[in-house]
């Protein structure tokens, strides 16, 4: 398994939070570096929301951690229903106060509220893990790159200020070796990319992750009845 090091000077002391997805944790050298903001980037339908929900669910059920899901493109009822079908009972976790949902669907429609750092969370104490899904609708409000970058920076800094380990999702706007990197890829401290390379074949690739050794090769993954399973020992063939 080819491994590269991101931020070697921190790798020895940075603690990890397991994602709850064994193959992904293997690629990450044990888990997501604690306190980082990690971008989950992918085309529509690749499983970004599932991956993030799985991360929060596993942390709550296996490590007794609290988590917050900030939803910007779907209501809580839909998320709870879809994840329940994959074996994740978010409603029960909410009753135990281990899971909180912040409905931010209106923010993408109101220009004066286009800064995620200004979203009220109703006095809820943010947990060790936060998911923001997704910034794409918000980002599209800023077609000019010089406007988009400060908006994304505001989001990243707001998440960093919580001290939590955060997953931030966004749509992959282009593919191929000549594609231009999106501003959020530069600003996030880690990037996990999900793709559908051909019919029925999904891949996951870690393009960067500060503070840990990573496997940078694209690896196949599948979505089963209990969520995402990464086949970390297999290669993707053309």
The secondary-structure class comes to alpha/beta
Strand order of the largest sheet: 6-5-7-8-4-9-10-12-13
Q: What is the mean predicted local confidence, pLDDT?
A: 84
Can you count the helices?
Answer: 8
Oligomer, anyone?
A: single chain
Q: CATH H-level name... which superfamily?
A: P-loop containing nucleotide triphosphate hydrolases
CATH class bucket: Alpha Beta
How large, in whole angstroms, is the Cα Rg?
17 Å
Morphology = globular
Compressed to H and E, one letter per element, the order equals: EHEHEEHEHHEEHHEHEEEEE
Helix coverage percent: 25-40%
E-strand count: 13
Low-confidence stretches: 7-12, 110-127
Count of the separate structural domains: 1
CATH architecture: 3-Layer(aba) Sandwich
First and last CA, distance: 19 Å
What share of residues are in beta strands?
Answer: 25-35%
């Amino acid at each position: 398994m080819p491994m590269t090091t991101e931020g070697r000077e921190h790798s020895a002391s940075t603690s990890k939070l397991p994602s709850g997805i064994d193959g992904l944790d293997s690629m990450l050298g044990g888990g997501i570096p604690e306190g980082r903001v990690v971008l989950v980037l992918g085309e529509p339908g690749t499983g970004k929301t599932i991956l993030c929900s799985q991360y929060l669910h596993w942390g709550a059920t296996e490590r007794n951690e609290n988590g917050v899901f900030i939803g910007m493109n779907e209501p809580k009822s839909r998320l709870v229903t879809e994840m329940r079908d994959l074996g994740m009972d978010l409603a029960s976790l909410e009753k135990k106060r281990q899971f909180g949902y912040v409905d931010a669907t209106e923010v993408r429609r109101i220009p004066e509220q286009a800064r995620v750092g200004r979203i009220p969370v109703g006095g809820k104490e943010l947990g060790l893990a936060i998911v923001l899904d997704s910034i794409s609708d918000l980002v599209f409000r800023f077609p000019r790159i010089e406007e988009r970058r400060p908006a994304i920076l505001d989001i990243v800094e707001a998440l960093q200020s919580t001290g939590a380990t955060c997953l931030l999702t966004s749509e992959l706007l282009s593919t191929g070796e000549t594609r231009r990197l999106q501003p959020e890829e530069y600003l996030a401290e880690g990037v996990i990319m999900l793709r559908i390379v051909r019919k029925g074949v999904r891949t996951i690739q870690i393009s960067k992750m500060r503070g840990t050794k990573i496997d940078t090769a694209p690896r196949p993954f599948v979505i089963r009845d209990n969520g995402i399973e990464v086949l970390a020992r297999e290669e993707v063939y053309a």
